[in-house]
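Hey L., structure's done. Input below.
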Amino acid sequence: MCGVVGVYNVENAARTALEGLRLLQHRGQDGAGLVVALPDGTLERKRGRGDVQSIFSDPHEWAFPGRAAIAHTRYATQGEQTEDNIQPIKSATFFPFQIPISIAHNGNFSNFLELQQRLGGFYQTTTDTEIIFHLMHNSPERDLEKRILDAAAHVDGSYSMLILTSEKLYAMRDPAGFRPLIIGRIGDGFIVSSERYGFGRVGADVVRDVNPGEMVVFEGNQMLSRKIGRTSERKYHCIFELVYFANPAETQNRVEVSEFRFRSGMMLYGEEEHPARIDVVVPVMDSGLDAAYGYHKASGIDLVRGIYRNHHVGRTFIQPTQEERRKSLREKQIPVSAMIKGKRIKLVDDSIVRGNTTKGLVKMARDAGALEVHVGIASPPVRWVCEFGIANGPVEDLIARTYEGNVERVREYIDADTLTYLSVPGLLKATGMGDAQQRYCTYCLTGEKPEF
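Output:
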């Protein structure tokens, strides 16, 4: 998924960008980076593997002067986990303009291998983001702004992208609007971020979203709107942003994330034809919390904190390997025996992707003395590998795909007494948008691929 932050015409831009980036840590924890436009016209970069706090713990190493900066926290979807692939990527001198330029990208260019083969050239990274440099370099346009627009017109897939030069900041969102990108105002300056969560912390007021198919140019104290050449009749906002990735305090495309998750939990109970007899509802902390509240509200069954969440451990879904996910789970989720011992419990979570987390949680609950463990998932089975910025593959890791959508076999694998999923129509209804089927990409759930 990744998280991006851009700051323009703001004193101590580096500090503001990092404050915003820390609040996007849930979107990526493989690595993080910062690029600042220095007063002398050069771009300075600091990056590393790990979380934002550990990489930028020493202000003497990153307190660069300058009023413009971009920052990125990485969740690898293309390219190896090496420092070279940590964004923002940077070109010290971009020909023919003889200026430095840097790019931070959240999303996935689904045709980048095809473009790479066609364009050729030397590549410093193995990420899809670098293809933008090559497209710009090969563009026939003479103006830099037009070269950026021309490059964007050639890529398929998803992107919320920031491009920084010594004088300007460009913010772009793909024509379908897969990934979020929001503009805020700080005095005479601006901040652009993957989420508006935390704008208040840096003293910013929300202005608006970057529209699908729009490039916003920040210059001086102005923001200018440009249209990206390619258009999409349909919008394909990512449904998994609402299900899992977005901060619960966030609003995306006029949908309150927390309220959506609450409604999905209510609808999960409403779709269960023969609900199991249970004593307590137990949320899987933290992303399953709102859905569990919804299930509790609809069912009238007591909700208890039967699992303690260790917040010093990152998100397990975005760990790079199965072993690291298992290790993180053991450190992160701790059952509270006093709340579940001798009881029939309903574990409510946002999703099952690979199945290992849920299997581990069921075992933990049984070991802590739960009499029965029933599992409710407030989204449908994930059966297809995303091509638009979620690294949920490879396909053989998808538990629902492994068992060909057979819920009973998935239940046996995770060792639950019962297993229920929310349906696709139920999930879309939980958005509260009457035209949700036309607004959201559900490819990972339905196999229906968006058309551009």
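The CA atoms of residues 379 and 422 lie 5 Å apart. DSSP finds 17 helices and 23 strands in the chain.

-- N.
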